[in-house]
Amino acid sequence: MTAAGWLQIAVYVVALAALTKPLGAYMYRAFETDARPWPSVLGRLENLCLRLCGPRAAEEQTWTGYLGSLMAFSVVGIVVTFALQMLQGALPLNPQGLPAPSWHLALNTAVSFTTNTNWQSYGGETTMSYLTQMAGLAWQNFVSAAAGIGVALALARGLTRTPGPSGSKTLGSFWADLVRSTVYVLLPLSLVWAVALVACGVVQNFSAYVEVTTVEGAKQTLAMGPAASQVAIKQLGTNGGGFFNVNSAHPFENPGAISNFLQCLAILLIPAALTHTYGKMARDTRQGWAIFTAMAALFLAGLTACYLAESQPNAAIAGLGVDQAAGNLEGKEVRFGVANSALWATATTAASNGSVNSMHDSYTPLGGLVPLLNIQLGEVVFGGVGAGLYGMLVFVLLSVFIAGLMVGRTPEYLGKKVEAHEMKVVTVYVLVFALFVLVPAAWASVAPGGLSSLANRGPHGLSEILYACSSAAGNNGSAFAGLNANTPFWNCLLAVCMFFGRFAMIAPCLAIAGSMVGKKTSTPGLGTFPTHGGLFATLLVGVIVIVGALTFLPALSLGPIVEHFLAAAGRTY
After folding, report:
1. Lesser CB count within 10 Å: N end or C end of the chain?
2. What torsion, rounded to 10 degrees, do the Cα atoms 357, 362, 365, 369 define?
3. DSSP 318
4. Structure pTM?
5. Of 564, 391, 358, residue with least CA distance to 478
């Protein structure tokens, strides 16, 4: 580790913290007030979109209505994205004449982008046309992120609202939240980021691929395309799908230090700001800062561990005569080095982003453990756009319940009692994620279809399988590589993991919101456990770590942990 590396990390953390409050306040104004920004431009666009959604689009919904609208919209999105891929060979904006992908790859991709996962079993420049990238995949980058923000807002309303005079238990309108998230947040930010990335050298054109002659006299084909616009929303929406095969390690997608900083900052920008939005919704910004503090503590702990591990020589190649004075540079871009690679790997898996600027499969066992564990904690370490906040609020309720048990009184959060029904639903939320990670990973570890495309055996091969299932169910989208997932077995298995990892966890969140919104609030007393200070933030961190450790430690022990000790002993098996 170097002083320059820590300085770059410090600049990143300071910039993220500095932008949290102003962006969070802006989003509160856009979502929860009538004085929305730029009414003459964005307000008119919002009204137009709501009219297209139907005459009742802005009407408030109960949790079941909100969930029904979300599911209907998402299923239609899967069908349309699947059809667009299967027809791309006959559609325009396809200068390379790329044919339709296989049905199972198209299905996997449609589910992947609709669930905000952006797992890619293909190389973008060799598989998807410009039209498919823009009208199908980039479109889903916007609306899947907006849907996640909507669920977070609905849960926040359930916790912070009190029943109206008529006993109403509504949580807002899915269609209004979808439109406002897109119009007021994702579109303006994406426009600013796309222009900045073009200025940094990210390509943005509709040109056919260019054939050039290298200095050695050989011929090389350079991929082109509208990359900057998709990179902007893939990062801001924590989608993560790369326009090119090697994602943000590609020089046309991420040319240098400034573009790298902007893209990495965009990953955590909205998730961090939503904590302040939540604090304003709770009418106590300290509630939001307590959640931000817990997220930041987990993020910095993981980043320190990853940077430390990758700054050391890789024991697996110690006998090859490779100079490792700069740390483990295998699979990393020299343009970014160890510090920025570790920072990106930690940020992209702390959020459900999944974009990469280095190859996680080439990390040391303990360095690779950090991205894997970040996903398995539920991706609440800032987490995805919306998904991080609603996942963290579920853990907040669990922490409040545990604190209540310790002091022997009925737990309360924001003046509302947290009772047995809510805790049953919280338990379902926690178990669903583990179910769709561990069961598919166990099956793939023994099934011929799961093992047929695995390049590595032993603990590292298990880590690759475990990472793929964790990434899919956690809607992250990054991969360890070393596993060819573009097979019927893997495409279908991971599509199932992505679908249920998204919607089987959203449903409990909305159910909790529907239960809590109908409860009356009481004035906090002397025995009420405060949830806005450092003590609660510490308890929240402990609960998240313990739940993740109890759930996944046995599997991790057979994968990256045992691989670390084998590598230290000079063995790979």
Report:
1. C
2. 30
3. G
4. 0.93
5. 358
